[in-house]
Predict the structure.
Amino acid sequence: MRWTRGKTWAGLLAALAITSVTAATAVPPKGDILLVPDRVWTADGDAAHAGWGVLVHDGAITAVGPVDTLKTPAGAQRIALPGSTLTPGLIDLHSHVFLHPYNETLWNDQVLKEPQDYRTLEAAAHARATLLAGFTTLRDLGTEGAGYADVSVKRAIDEGMIPGPRMFVATRAIVATASYGPGPRGFRPDIDLPSGAQEISGVDEAIRATREQAGHGADWIKLYADYRVGVDGSTQPTLSLAEMKAIVDTAHLSGRPVAAHASSDEGVRLAVEAGVDSIEHGYRASEATFRLLKQHGTAYEPTLTAVESTAQYFEHYVPGQSEPTARMKEAERAFRTALKLGVTIGNGSDVGVFTHGDNWREPTNMVRDGMTPPQALHAATDVAARILRKQNSFGRIAPGLRADLVAFAGDPSAHVDDLQHPVFVMKDGTIYRTPQGTP
């Protein structure tokens, strides 16, 4: 939650009264914990299992099944979660913790005017809000002008200094020279502007930037295959196929996957041909291009909520009342096409364009645009874990996996809107949020 002058101290104190815990008090539990919700959705199928429970020991899941069949060790802590459904911790594959909604501060002003130290403190607050919303893992795709500060935020979370989700970071991202903001169009040419990403021209610079970002701690490399560089401001390809292939090949040599921002059909096609591992946005991709994604096994993160949010800010769109804007219809068409063709779709929202902690909006928009609630849950759990190459660590409720577990009031496998109501959050066996009255 971002605190503005409009927030009152009473509101702040009320928010602090929620039954969550800070990193200072969230001590990883030792021994055994038995979680007893009304239902468990494991991600191994589509239906939630009534009467099931989950046993956790020292940060890992040790058993799942009907409560009366679990061999619960003597002395295990029992946590009842009545009225709730327990799911794997949710995953958002496209976040920007160094951004906040554009109706608060425009992107240019955030990059140009907000000091990096301030933005890093904001990022820590955003990470906390994300975790308490039930998202235990993020792939954060670029600091948008804050350098390598995401590596420090990730470290602070990993070391228990601040609460937050498990993070996979992309640091600065890579763009073609003079193709990304702020400017240079519209600014005085004699001003040396900070850049929202690392600029390159040519294969040699592409290789160097990839190595630099990997060396500074990037888990993923992000490139911009296109941007609004057309004479008329239209989205056109920026990096050449050779430049993108150099980035991909260099990243893959060190075991790092590559995500590509690509909205135009040509930009998406070139990025897929270059061998990227995931496409972000893809709004104008044709059916033929989505078939190429399917053929190459390239994942797709639709970021439907980013389009909806900018429509709210700048086109007076009101959810549930207004007719979808042209860009929203375009994004829906792309999403339905990918879904029809069986493209691997991961949950990626572009949060930061909208409020951190409202990540649940993306799965709900996926259902609005054609998925079933279980499909959207899979996209945010086991499918997302596979895209991260971490399916053997988290993303399902199964013995041996990390205890990333979230309980939601109701049953999001039947009613996806229930994702708005987390009542219990555990990451790596550490409890960060509990319902009122739970010990």
